[in-house]
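Posting this for the archive.
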Amino acid sequence: MPKHYFLLFLFIAINLHGQEKTVRLKGKVLFENKGIQYITVKNSRSKKGMITHGNGIFDLSVKLGDSIRLSSLAYNNRVILISDYHIKNKILYVYLEPKINELNEVFLDKKIRLDFTNLYTSEHIVMDRDLMDFASAPNSDVLTNPNAITPVDFVEIFNKLTKNIRKRKREKKALIKHEEKAKIIFLDNIIDLYGENYLQKQLKIPEGKSYLFIEFCNDKGLSGLYRSESIDILDFLFKRSIEFNNLRTN
């Protein structure tokens, strides 16, 4: 009988130890099989999290039973409960759906339809006057006389000709700002993505020098890899670690 109690105690101890085991989980957030960036991924227990970069990849420490919350302004929030499958395989794929804004009688798609049938206007309200109220009547001579000279608005013509150019400049400026923000997020999360343990054991980066190493790598162009695959980033880090360690020893 004592032997059975011992085995039962051992089984419970092993099970409890398995539940407390922390693993580094690699995951990817997708919509229509494409990675989504700028999704906040947070462990509700540890309060630690990160933001996905270009291909939707994230890396997080979890335990069995943890709740992983994924949130975004553009996509519906999700909560994933970490199971034995996740602990065993150390991988998690999460599919999100975009948010749809529902407005009463207003449908926003490729076209806009507004329903004004129930719009009430008091007969005592004086509506704002627009430019049409101040416009003069059309010149009948210009409309009927083929020899009449029609004035040309060069400012309007110039604005129309340069409209697309200005639009492209605004789009380019917004894209550059978006890319700079993505690069900053990528650099801020790269240590969490691959872990201090990897930097110290595989790349031989001394303890406490991780952020100095990342700054060194950034001077060599690390931020430009924010859209690259993990294998390309790791190859870059490996080559830069040799240079970094040589500088320290010389």
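Helices lie at 2-20, 84-89, 131-134, 140-144, 154-194, 196-201, 210-219, 230-249. The chain has eight helices and ten strands.
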